[in-house]
Amino acid sequence: MQLIISICCTKTNLHAKNQIEEMIQLQLKKWLLSSLAMVLMLSLFAGTAFADNHGDDNAMVRVFHASPDAPAVDIYVNGDLAVEGAAFEDITGYLELPAGDHDVAIHAAGEDEAVYEQTLTVEGGTHYTVAAVDFLDGGDFRLEAFVDDNTVAEGMTKVRVGHLSPDAPAVDVGLVGGDSLFEGAEFFAVTDYLELDPDTYDLEIRAAGTEDQVLDLSGTTLEADTVYSVYAVGALEDLGVVVVADDAYAMPGDMPQTGMGGASQSSTMLPLYLSLLAGAGAMFVIVRRRYAFEQ
């Protein structure tokens, strides 16, 4: 009788353990399915956020004060103050604007009345530098928009030259005493980009077609994965250079999902998804192994 009771108890215990194991497996399956559902929801959310933040509906615009005789200015876009107290040679960070037409008004800093107004048209998905150029007193003051291309092949550098000096003649830019890299750049024009190996270059600005040096730019360092815009600014008798350096991103096709610095939501969220999945699988295996060991 004792043997029969012992066998029955053993069978009962095994049956109970099997029931517990089935219950645990069922709960783990439910948890795993819930985790998968959460991962899918997060991925959809991240995709939507990426589209909202990095879509082609908006342009990125920065402003460059390159008018030699203009005072510090405030700039209003569609009636709203966008830039405050920008002085000659100042360049702002990028501002986000919807694609289309925008009313731009320039005020002397702190003044209520606009001294200049212009309609600015921008395209979505495009970066611009909008320069205030020419002499304010000469009647030719205006805004000129240049398209920025901050892509470059990995490990390379890229440079362009902008001639924004109102009374300076056309210029060449090249190596000191050597070949020209850019030829015949005229006022308010910006050259195409030139891709170069990163290095320190002895550059100079020369009067176009001559060897007459206008500005000595010896020791100009162009770093890898950086895009440079070199602007000649000011009146001829006080000519200067403003160099703008932008961190580059990869060429199209290899472009990371980044905005103006920082990783995108989708790239930072991906490890979280994988961790959730790995955690679900690990928990299932660990519990299964622990229970099997206890048997």
From TrEMBL:
Transmembrane residue ranges: 31-51, 270-287
InterPro entries per UniProt: DUF4397 (IPR025510)
Keyword Transmembrane set for record: yes
Location of the DUF4397 domain: 59-173, 176-253
Keywords: Membrane, Transmembrane, Transmembrane helix
Protein name: DUF4397 domain-containing protein
Source species of the chain: Bacillus selenitireducens (strain ATCC 700615 / DSM 15326 / MLS10)
Source organism phylogeny: Bacteria, Bacillati, Bacillota, Bacilli, Bacillales
